[in-house]
Amino acid sequence: MTKADVMDVIKNEKLEDYNWFDDHNIKQDEVGIRTDGNTWLVYTSDERANPISEKQFDSESEALDNFIKRLRAKNKFKKLYK
């Protein structure tokens, strides 16, 4: 998966509550992805906007796959409990 693929999925599926490569300060209950040189980190934030459930990847593609998987799950959960 590429960054363009992920952005298409986000747009087409109307996914919300994400932090795309630190485009803003971490907010509560969002899924985020960021890079630190040659590694990528995918996380979920808690109700206090603290990153939790962090997973590190050596491949951007694997990180993007994990990011979109988490984002889909979060949005599905959000719809169920609205």
From TrEMBL:
Domain of life the protein comes from: Bacteria
Protein name, entry field: DUF5659 domain-containing protein
